[in-house]
Design a protein that fits this description.
3 copies of one chain form a homotrimer. Chain A has 263 residues and is an alpha/beta fold. Chain A contains 11 helices and 8 strands.
Chain lengths: 263, 263, 263
Amino acid sequence: MKSGEAVWRTVLALRAESPLVHNIVNFVAMDLAANVLLAVGASPVMAHAREEVADMVAIAGALTVNIGTLDPAWVEAMHLAIDRARKLDKPWILDPVGAGATPYRNEVLKALVKKKPAVVRGNGSEILALMGKSAARGVDSANASVEALDAARDLARKTGGVVAVTGAVDYVTDGTQLAAVDNGHALMGRVTATGCALTALVGACVAVTGEAFEGTLHALAIYGVAGELAARDADGPGSFRVRFLDRLAGLDKAGLVGRLRLQ
Amino acid sequence: MKSGEAVWRTVLALRAESPLVHNIVNFVAMDLAANVLLAVGASPVMAHAREEVADMVAIAGALTVNIGTLDPAWVEAMHLAIDRARKLDKPWILDPVGAGATPYRNEVLKALVKKKPAVVRGNGSEILALMGKSAARGVDSANASVEALDAARDLARKTGGVVAVTGAVDYVTDGTQLAAVDNGHALMGRVTATGCALTALVGACVAVTGEAFEGTLHALAIYGVAGELAARDADGPGSFRVRFLDRLAGLDKAGLVGRLRLQ
Amino acid sequence: MKSGEAVWRTVLALRAESPLVHNIVNFVAMDLAANVLLAVGASPVMAHAREEVADMVAIAGALTVNIGTLDPAWVEAMHLAIDRARKLDKPWILDPVGAGATPYRNEVLKALVKKKPAVVRGNGSEILALMGKSAARGVDSANASVEALDAARDLARKTGGVVAVTGAVDYVTDGTQLAAVDNGHALMGRVTATGCALTALVGACVAVTGEAFEGTLHALAIYGVAGELAARDADGPGSFRVRFLDRLAGLDKAGLVGRLRLQ
């Protein structure tokens, strides 16, 4: 599961199966999240109407819920979609954007976490805030991922699922097991919505592997390696974003396995 | 009308007249649709408030309605805008994103189709679904465009307008006439919202030609050739999207006429 | 304040202080506005829920309000955020997208202008429309910035703040002082949301300089120089957008000071 071979099999599965991922995601991230999913071979769908989210989730392989630009109507739709996903035993992934930034965000997250996401994917500040241990400043992290490791373990035990805390090094835990991915590049933090789009990819990988820990780990690995490859010939955040999508789409086995730093 | 010369005249008209196109379009596609319109020389405006859509349509050359991330408030605005467009004899174009994916989408589309769009532009699965002949899987097509040819003809007869079904080959029909554009590139399907942005371009071309069949055909031709040109030096979906906008803006007569495969 | 040295100090302050900028901004512009802020070193946050805007503004260095894709719920949130910003003496910046295009926009703007924005940033047509002197056609300007100079001065006197009118030449006035920036490139008008993203940058620069006139002038200067640099090796609007973000992030003192044309 932690081998480059296993990650590569997930890349191939994404391309072969083209999982449909239903995303209820913020306005800033919609474009990048859709393009990341298309680049790896998955099929994105964005839908937020209370009138249709339960039907959309029923045809999808996974649901991702991102609270970035939340408001009450969207939160209601999130709950309808999640309830349906749980009923159908489909994995749902939570991205707690800006956790800790406002009381409203915290209150909404409290109710969402109770619905036991298969995976929570956030930055250090967000995972700390979810465990009541930090007040985020906006949506960018003020904490290194490693600072949130204990909080991640506690959160995983609380939800019974997997928690990924991402940063310079990415960690995945289910409360017992721990894995780390030491790939990626600092330019990823200079492009908006790279965290949100990663959450969408987690949805796709969990859909094809059928397993939350492994799927999450593989998503982080694929994303990190593509980021490293993209940074090699980027002149800044604009060209990085472009090459990142190219690299995600063009990933080959040698490039992936040779660069992967999984522990 | 089917000659390269005629298509080139439409390119020049877009640049000279800079038609204002009012788009009620999904959140994922707003950026690309606006950039495609600006690239060809048109002027995009996005507005969805029930308080202003009727006024906005009154100053625009065409209205495009795209149901991608629909909800009831937006659907209400769509109807207000369409009703005004019809009253003022302005063309309105329908993009039935995800037709067939949920009962809500189908119900909304049923009411929209009754308002006789000048053009419907969709992929194979969407056009089939509009005629009750397929259940789409999300928003990406599971059917080749040619499979939807009969459905397209039937739909055109039903609306009294034009139907474009796009894919590897694009078709345009008014129920009697049929034309095909065999340009484009597979990378277009790996970038989100390329179909939606094409619908916005159809709006611009119908506005400057004053004719639904010709305007639609020319939009498909311009888009397909720019896509082919862009693919020649793209390394993947990221760089394709960048070069595609460059090629749309920089199209010259020789490059267009020499590559066009219209029938 | 008008020297290249002073502008460069603002660039360094953006990178060192990473000001949090709260943007209530239209759907089309969210991606570019966030990426422009990240490129210069600032930290963007987008939030529009009435339940949280007042709390978000309280942790931000500046608030920007852009009416691009407005509707009544968003307008209500704008007022809540603005009221809190004023109470806390935080600067708020208004981008009157499409002023004059519809009666609804004009009515909304009338109420917003009364709340005395620290800065208004618009194109020629928008600033003229705000003073009742023009009817805009959509969201692209039909007037050169210089035509709106008197209107800009009058508007600045009315609000007691600063007004920037941007175009081929950009002007900043507080009703008495006047400064001009003669940088930038025509390609900026061929990429959607470049005006809106500039308004976000004005917010960041006003936050770090603590001064509306200087902050606005420096934002225009940084943006214009980065635009010129980007245009040198762009093949069209697609590649321009990419290089523009690269140049904003990579701006160095010599490149900035040598190119600046401030008066």
